[in-house]
Amino acid sequence: MNEMYELSQSIHIYSVITLIVVLLLMIAMHKVKGDFEKFVKNIKIAMVFHLSLLGFVVLTGTIMMAAKHLSFSPANLLMIVSVFIVITLEIKRNKALVKVIKFKLMSEESYKRLGFRYQSIELFLLLGVSAFAGMASAVSI
Questions:
Q1: What's the chain's Rg over C-alpha atoms?
Q2: Which of 4, 40, 53, 97 is least enclosed by beta carbons within 10 angstroms?
Q3: Residue 22, Cα to own-chain centre: how many angstroms?
Q4: What is the pLDDT, as a whole number, of residue 124?
């Protein structure tokens, strides 16, 4: 059981680190000026990686909680709430992208600003939760 927990924890940590890198790349994509169609193509590709990594983080977090027999701590609750916030922001960002592409209800620049804002919030939330979880685990040891 400890081996499964340690493996899950390693995958969880590396998934979070990779998720941070993907978010940084997506934020950089929002700031680059250029062809909007190329931007949309690249952001859709990055979105697949982003959501897959978010799924890895949720799955490995669930496995670790199950291995610890669902022991809830403030860090675990904060992680759960932050995942719901990140998912909500991604849904809103995706809906805004659809408004730009299909319905032309939003300008391309306003979408880029909105996407930049949402993904910056996600990044700071992810970094904050990682820092809090690291502090909480250091205190509990």
A1: 17
A2: 4
A3: 9
A4: 96
State how far the Cα of 124 lies from the Cα of 118, in Å rounded to an integer: 10
Q: Tell me if residue 69 falls in helix, strand or coil.
A: coil
- Domain total of the chain: 1
> CB count, 10 Å around CB of 139?
8
Provide the Cα torsion 37, 42, 44, 46; round to 10°.
-160
- Distance (Å, whole) CA 17 – CA 15: 5
In a 3-state reduction of DSSP, which class is residue 68?
Answer: coil
For 39, the domain range is 2-140
pTM of the model: 0.89
Q: How far apart are the first and last CA of the chain?
A: 19
Q: Which helix (H) or strand (E) holds 74?
A: helix 74-98
| Residue 4 parent element (H or E) | helix 2-31
Q: pLDDT tens for residues 26-73?
A: 999 999 999 999 999 999 999 999 999 999 999 988 888 888 777 777
